[in-house]
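Lab notebook, bench 4. The sequencing result for the construct came back, and we need a structural model before the next group meeting so we can plan mutations. Quick request posted to the team channel:

Model the 3D structure of this chain.
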Amino acid sequence: MEHDNVMDTLALNPAARGAAAANWKAPLLAAAAAALVALPLGIDSPAHLNLLILILMAAQLGVAWNILGGYAGQVSLGHVAFFGIGAYTSTMLLSLGLNPWLGALAGGCIAVAASLVIGWPCFRLKGHYFTMATIAVAEIIQTLVTNWEPAGAAVGLTIPMDKQGWSTLVFASKTPYYYLALGLLAISLGVNLWIQRSHLGYYFRAIKDEPDAARSLGVSLTRYKLIALAFSSFLAALGGSLYAQKELYIDPGSVLHTGLSIKMALVAILGGVGSLFGPVVGAAALTLIEEGSRSLFGGTGRGTDLIIYATIIIAIAVYKPGGLIGWARALVLGWGARRAARRGERP
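Done. Here's the predicted structure in token form:
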């Protein structure tokens, strides 16, 4: 009886619902974090561990994209350029003897500088014109790198395995890469949470929902779009550096392909664009679909995952624009409201 009364209160009172959510979220998140840290201890298969790493890396990139595309509402399909800048910068600096940790930070800084140069003219465009401009910029960077001999041109670059350990970020086992990907995802979620709760988050959402009203209140649209792009590009570049260290080989086809930009956007849209954990949920769903279709169909089913992607995205866009997170939230609220309504009808 007491539990039923609590559910009724939550369904009818948004303030009580928010307080209750805050109460159960913290222990739930702590339990989820502990489970993720302990997860490799129960997995013997390198293939299964690699699948988890792919999910974490896709989630991190989706979280990075979400700052610009989700909060600020600027749909970029050229984020692979920043991913590639991070991968190439850390790899090239490593060949010169620089520590890969510092190389990753340098890649992030160069990506931020590039984002400001790219963003300034591109943010003069709106809607699909901005999206098309980001695709064009990414294609230009891919073409330049493909013909740049110091970066290995079309052949690419490799990272030697002669020195292994945390100082070189080269490991024979996949377990350290799992923890690196998990740590980077946690940092990216922390940045997103800080933005969400700071004045930047309010400005970004105002730019997304009511740009004219935001401008009339003195918010510089271009400045804050550039800030969103800078945060987003820095995190995407860190993801590129991690990819390079994990795969030990990069070329334009693997780190500058437009399909990767689309996947960054898809994981956020599927999970729930503009929400904190939406890209994580979307990354898990899309990566499982991708790897599952690859395992099920092999080479004969090439492209099947793209068909499934497209079908899911169309269904989400038409029927559940809030994504999987929004869908689950609506189901919980609807269930609570129905319970409250049934109890209200009783004498």
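The chain has a mean pLDDT of 87.
Will bring this to the meeting.
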